[in-house]
Amino acid sequence: EVQLVESGGGMVQPGGSLRLACVTTGFTFSDYDMRWLRQAPGKGPEWVTGIDTGGTSTTYSDSVRGRFTMTRDVAKNTVYLQMNNLEIEDTAIYYCNANFLSTDHWGQGTQVTVSS
């Protein structure tokens, strides 16, 4: 059974940090590009960042570049999202996605709330 389980969300003040993790099972992790997307209240999904299968190429949306860092650990079949200098606008449910050709797997999401 394919599973992607996100964790690490929570509530933090502006300027704070959180580290999200996405533990995957049930598929060949090294074959899949991995992504983080988010959905804020009342808005559509937004792509945040992606990393290639080898972990050597990472891309970021303009809204998070320089503040967020995505990494992957092949030994643990896990990807991480280090989020620093969080802003109120980063409040959203964050989803982990695994993509290989036309196949996508999704996690259930983890809530991140940035509030003073």
Molecular structure report:
The structure is a single chain. By secondary structure, the chain is mainly β. It has strands at 3-7, 10-12, 18-25, 33-39, 45-51, 58-60, 68-73, 78-83, 92-100, 103-106, 110-114. 0% of the residues lie in helices and 54% in strands. 28% of the residues are buried. The chain is built from no helices and eleven strands. Strands 2, 4, 5, 6, 9, 10 and 11 form a seven-stranded mixed sheet that branches. It has a four-stranded antiparallel sheet with strand order 1-3-8-7, with no helix packed on it.
- Straight-line distance between termini: 40 Å
State the assembly state of the protein chains: single chain
Query: How much strand content do the residues show?
Result: over 45%
Largest sheet report? 7 strands, mixed
Compute the number of helices: 0
Question: What gross morphology would you assign?
Answer: globular
User: Average pLDDT value?
Assistant: 97
Element-level helix/strand string: EEEEEEEEEEE
Compose a concise summary of this entry.
This protein has no helices and eleven strands.
SSE topology sketch:
Layout: E1 3-7, E2 10-12, E3 18-25, E4 33-39, E5 45-51, E6 58-60, E7 68-73, E8 78-83, E9 92-100, E10 103-106, E11 110-114
Parallel strand pairs: 2-11
Antiparallel strand pairs: 1-3, 3-8, 4-5, 4-9, 5-6, 7-8, 9-10, 9-11
